[in-house]
Amino acid sequence: MTALISLTDVSKSFDRRDGSTVTAVDAVSLEVETGEVLAVIGYSGAGKSTLVRLLNALEKPTSGSVLVAGQDLTRLSEGELRAARSKIGMIFQQFNLFRSRTVAGNVAYPLKVAGVAKAERDRRTAELLDFVGLLDRAHSYPEQLSGGQKQRVGIARALATNPPLLLCDEATSALDPETTTEVLSLLRRVNSELGVTIVVITHEMDAVRQIAERVAVMENGRLVEIGDVYDVFSDPQTPAAQRFVRSATHDRPSADTLVRLRHQHPGRLVSVRITDEAGLQQRIDTAFRDTGTTAELVYGGVSEIRERRTGSLTYELTGPSVDAALDALRAGGIHATEEV
Ligand SMILES: Nc1ncnc2c1ncn2[C@@H]1O[C@H](COP(=O)(O)OP(=O)(O)OP(=O)(O)O)[C@@H](O)[C@H]1O
């Protein structure tokens, strides 16, 4: 695979009105392979939107280089930039459709700007509307559509000029969970059937889980962790990623929940990481049984990421040899953390 996007040591600072400087993106290096779906996550203010604006050349980096499809966006003239931007599709949280144009008019707009002849425009528009399942709404206006339909129009419009790259900035954040799933499954088709590389900016863990292969975690402008979605979500390495994953997955007790659990359960509280290893539950049970430890399940959650099991179970452990039980778990490669 070759890299469609290559960021090298990219920083972007803004001068604030009070004279201070904020580094919205701080020394980020990142490659996105052709054909992959990468999610960029992080709390509000982490620098995600600025990163996207650097990718479509709406912002120029303070330093570093931004290569998209082999072109260094930082070195292009205004005219060349316009051409480069037409090869990058973009969809937004608020859809950004033209209210005064019909669905077909919205989708055809980028083709019109690109100077495509009317007959070809009509053909391509119909093809795109068919792809997103809205051919029958071609003559409707955006205000007559649901949120999910509007985003499908947004996707059709973003794909009109056949861009190899689609950037999605919080594209499902304004949608309900069911509609989010619909839009994400359409984006998955955009990736798998049309071969479009997708970068998704989101603060929604579920969106990442449903669509991305890799995930990058941003904090304070820095890219603090990047890896396979399963690896990062099931075993985040950095404190920033751990915080984010914990707050989004709810399978480990929060500080408040722990206070309550402790009140109800005087034994030692231990959280065991659940992975998709075969026979895991049996090995956990054996470690408890062999050491005469009583294990009461008091909290937890198990779900799937990319069709692999992941989660955490919190037990109250009592008995004379709880330490031996923990040793036995850990000796078997099972990740067990005492909740303190
Ligand atoms: N044009 C600008 N001028 C000044 N500061 C900016 C500008 N754009 C972004 N910032 C600052 O840069 C930091 C990162 O902002 P950014 O919008 O990229 O974060 P984000 O992760 O996308 O957050 P959100 O999800 O809230 O949009 C913030 O501190 C923000 O205030």
**Helix/strand class:** alpha/beta
**Tally of separate helices:** 12
CATH uppermost class of the largest domain: Alpha Beta
Task: Write the CATH homologous superfamily of the largest domain.
Answer: P-loop containing nucleotide triphosphate hydrolases
Q: Rounded to an integer, what's the Rg over CA atoms?
A: 24 Å
Q: What helical percentage do the residues reach?
A: 25-40%
The strand line-up of the biggest sheet is: 6-7-8-3-9-10
Give me the count of strands. 14
Strand content: 25-35%
Q: Helix and strand succession?
A: EEEHEEHEHHHEHEHEEHHHEHEEHE
Pfam family, one: ABC_tran
Family: Belongs to the ABC transporter superfamily.
Function: Part of the ABC transporter FtsEX involved in cellular division. Has ATPase activity.
Domain ABC transporter: 5-245
